[in-house]
Specification:
10 helices; globular; 8-stranded mixed sheet; about 35% helix; about 15% strand; alpha+beta
Length: about 350
Amino acid sequence: MSANPAANFATALIERHRFEEAFVFWHARHADDAQGALAALASLSRQATRERQHQLAAGYHAMHTALRRGSRWYPGMLANRLLPLADVAVSSHRLRHDAAQLAYLHQLGVLGDAFPPIIARYRRLAARLESHLDRHDLLSTDEQDAIDEAYDRIIHLRPTPSVAQAFSSHALAAARRPPPAHGIVVIDDFLSPHALDELWRFCVQSTIWFGEQGHGRLAATYDHGFNCPLLVQVAHGVFGDDRQLLGLRAGKHPPRLPGESLHGAVDGLKVQLWLTPDTANLDQAKGGLVIRDHDGCARHIPYRQNRAVLFDARLAHGAASCHFRDDHASARIEVAMLYAWTGYYSTPSFRMAAISSSP
């Protein structure tokens, strides 16, 4: 890939799944030039993507994320070399979410006994900030010291490798066939049962929910930890290399959401996939997606676990009102993949309405 022997060496380590050795190599080489390390890794990831070496690109991205948001717990080699985080927003909702997730991981035995005191500090600070959104510079020095080691950093990234079969037997044919001239494509049982369970557990357990989007909604992005071999396998497997992947993110909703304002104007084909088990949804008729089609009709697609919705992202759309169980593992989680326009979906006759492609 590169004429640089050092980069070639790191690439060889990643290709052999020797992540920790590769990370130590990059961290040591760029210990005095953190931004240089980040820029180099981002460049190598982009180059691997252009060459369609998607798992290699994900490996570089994982190292980029570990350098950017590493903690003394992840990847476990940064106790004395943490890179500073800039412009960190602190909100009561994020603190309560993170405390609940850390408590969940501690109960699973993933995190050790260092975390109950951290969880307690999060909850005390969340109570003080209730109904406020403050910046770090509004916190006392003691409050900053109490959370700086863990807040907004990756504590745990669940190992989630690729699987033998990522999709159900009918999913890819349904996604790739010519769409109806008037329709949204809805595909139920999109992932294989194993892939679905693994990807859901990755989202529930990984401490990657750094983005806030209002009304208690959180986001995880590819550049900040929403990255594992299975996710890369799924995102690049929907259309193979026939369609460029433009964006990859996940969203998590609070137990109750009144419904989003409809938004759009993003150029591309969007695939939205829901991961949370249906048993968490306390109103089976809601919790899904509202899309305003080209005729101005607002169409509601109800929430179902493992349901994928393919539609023109330029159309106004938003999450419908929802009511889910109020515990960490029951949060409504969606994965959104954005692809470039090509083929049938770019034709002028492509219009949106509801259709099910389930078997």
